[in-house]
Design brief:
The chain folds into two domains: about 110 residues, Rossmann fold (3-Layer(aba) Sandwich); about 100 residues, Winged helix-like DNA-binding domain superfamily/Winged helix DNA-binding domain (Arc Repressor Mutant, subunit A). The chain is about 40% helix and about 20% strand. It is globular. It is α/β, with parallel strands linked by helices. The longest helix is centred in the last third of the chain and has 15 residues. The strands form three sheets. The chain has a five-stranded parallel sheet, with helices on both faces. Helix 1 links the parallel strand 1 and strand 2. The protein contains eight helices and eleven strands.
């Protein structure tokens, strides 16, 4: 089972989530502050980070940015409120998904599995696909631009793999939520938009004039090198 690091300053919430995940077989380490959490990442080497957004001192957004400087560790934000600004800032900082507290253990478990699930591609595809100066290795789950490997967060990689599997096809935000994030309900389109913006900053020469991931207003996104 995946090793989970939980950074949460509320003792009751922290203990409840920890107990629920341990009962499901996860090895769990907890931290009450951002500073302690950053240290625990180095010591514990988790498979996934559950990160409270509102932390004292080094807050959740700052933790997320520091992790993203040199790691592809999957991150799910925890927020006690559905505050639009907080959620958007957290997603822009590099989080892969978010959960509004309080949340049942089965909901948290489902999100963990969705973020960590590796993509299975059908056979017959080339080992490495070339799209302009992008080289995508589906088996190794790596992406390089002009020969330099890119550090993509799990949600960014999944989104790119999904879009490039059907070049020129237009996908709505809801389709991407269901297929990439595995949110079967009417989900939050901000997950998609924030992920697209982050991905463009990594794969596009000019993010404001994208060559690869194109927006069709009123319809969604498609991958199609210009």
């Amino acid at each position: 089972m995946p090793r989970v690091l939980l950074i949460e300053d509320d003792p009751s919430v922290r203990e409840g989530i920890e107990l629920g995940l341990r009962r499901r077989g996860h090895e769990v380490r907890t931290a009450a502050t951002g500073e302690a959490g950053l240290t625990a990442i180095q010591e514990f080497r988790p498979d996934l980070l559950l990160l409270d957004l509102m932390l004292p001192g080094v807050n959740g957004v700052q933790v997320c940015r520091r992790v993203r400087e040199g790691s592809q560790l999957p991150i799910i934000m925890l927020t006690a409120r559905g505050d639009d600004f907080d959620v958007v800032v957290g997603l822009e900082a590099g989080a892969d998904d978010y959960i509004v507290k309080p949340a049942r253990t089965e909901v948290i478990e489902a999100r963990i599995r969705a973020v960590l699930r590796r993509i299975e591609e059908p056979g017959g595809r080339p080992a490495v696909e070339l799209h302009g100066d992008l080289a995508i290795d589906r088996a190794g789950l790596t992406v390089a631009k002009a020969g330099e490997r890119l550090a993509l967060a799990p949600s960014e990689l999944k989104l790119l793999l999904y879009l490039t599997a059907a070049p020129e096809q237009v996908f709505s935000r809801q389709q991407l939520l269901e297929q990439v994030w595995e949110h079967s309900y009417h989900g939050d389109a901000r997950l998609v938009d924030a992920c697209v913006r982050r991905l463009r900053h990594k794969i596009e020469d000019v993010p404001g004039s994208p060559r690869y991931i194109q927006t069709l207003r009123g319809f969604g996104y498609r991958f199609g090198p210009l």
